[in-house]
Amino acid sequence: MKTNSNFHTNNKHKSGYDLDVLCASYPDLKLFVFENQYQTKTIDFADPKAVKALNTALLFAYYNIKFWEFPDTNLCPPIPGRVDYLHHLEDLLKQSNIHENIHVLDIGTGASCIYPILGNAEYNWSFVGTDIDEESLKCAQKIISKNKLESSISLRHQLNNSNILKGILKESDRFPAAICNPPFYKSETEALEATTRKLKGLNKNDDIDIVRNFSGTHNELWYKGGEKAFIHNYLYESSLFKEQCLWFTTLVSKKDLVRGMQVSLKKLGAKKIKIINMGQGNKISRIVAWTFK
């Protein structure tokens, strides 16, 4: 498959996928592989089961994961984009002379527990993952246990869905970094419209069953007020826990949100703000990082 030059230089997937290698690691992927009109092996990226099989194969082949199962209704994260965030975070921590015993807070870890298992595999980091959904945490815990990662990854339940850090962070906590992949949409309708556009981009017919091809629960995909509201809540709460974390970070999908974030963070007393551009598949995203120290 084609190279993605947007990815971090450390990303194992920047040159595309070797489907033969992936099928050898995860034979279930063979069911979804076919040759396209150019005699190139590929999968149908509009088929959620095919995409999930591909990402499972990547974890099995490159990250020493032996078990990665969660309901099809939950979001299936694209491994190349998720691990890219962690490579950029590692660069940021190096710049702060943090090289070992790295303990990361993952806000909204989800049923797939993706950032903790990737960060542990790539950099031997330990994690605390948080989520408001108990069922997602049960799935994440099973992934942790089946891969014998209990000593490196723990989970905390956010009881109040209006809070992000409140009720999660303890006075004794010290994290070099927090990461977050926020919900991007304001409502289910907006999320479904985005999925429809994506499927049209993959040259799928208008009569395709959108719901069948739509993965992600409401907690994962939408938030009252959308990405902007979630992020500004996170910015405010980060200012209440200045001692608990050195670098707070988040993915930001909408470029026009960055300016408002910078203004808010300066008002909240942030000492440094960094904007890190990164590739996320076929689009450009960015990480915003800030510290009060």
Write structural notes for this entry:
The chain has 293 residues and is an alpha/beta fold. It has a domain at 77-187 and 215-291: Rossmann fold, CATH 3.40.50. Helix content is 35%, strand content 18%. The chain contains 9 helices and 9 strands. The chain has helices at 19-25, 48-62, 79-95, 114-123, 134-146, 188-201, 218-221, 226-238, 258-268; strands at residues 34-35, 41-42, 103-107, 126-131, 153-157, 175-180, 245-252, 272-280, 283-291. Strands 5-4-3-6-7-9-8 form a 7-stranded mixed sheet, sandwiched between helices. Strands 1-2 form a two-stranded antiparallel ribbon. The N and C termini lie far apart (43 Å). The relative contact order is 0.13.
Outline of this structure?
This protein has 293 residues and is an alpha/beta fold. The protein has helices at residues 19-25, 48-62, 79-95, 114-123, 134-146, 188-201, 218-221, 226-238, 258-268; strands at 34-35, 41-42, 103-107, 126-131, 153-157, 175-180, 245-252, 272-280, 283-291. Strands 5-4-3-6-7-9-8 form a seven-stranded mixed sheet, with helices on both faces.
CATH homologous superfamily descriptor of the domain at 77-187 and 215-291: Vaccinia Virus protein VP39
SSE ordering:
HEEHHEHEHEEHHHEHEE
Rg from Cα: 19 Å
In order across it, which strands form the biggest sheet?
5-4-3-6-7-9-8
Please, what is the average pLDDT? 87
Helix-strand makeup class: alpha/beta
Low-confidence stretches: 206-222
Shape descriptor reads: globular
The total of helices stands at 9
What is the share of helical residues? 25-40%
**CATH architectural designation of the domain at 77-187 and 215-291:** 3-Layer(aba) Sandwich
Strand content: 15-25%
Q: Which class of the domain at 77-187 and 215-291 in CATH terms?
A: Alpha Beta
Number of strands: 9
CATH topology of the domain at 77-187 and 215-291: Rossmann fold
**Cα distance, first to last residue?**
43 Å
Largest sheet: 7 strands, mixed
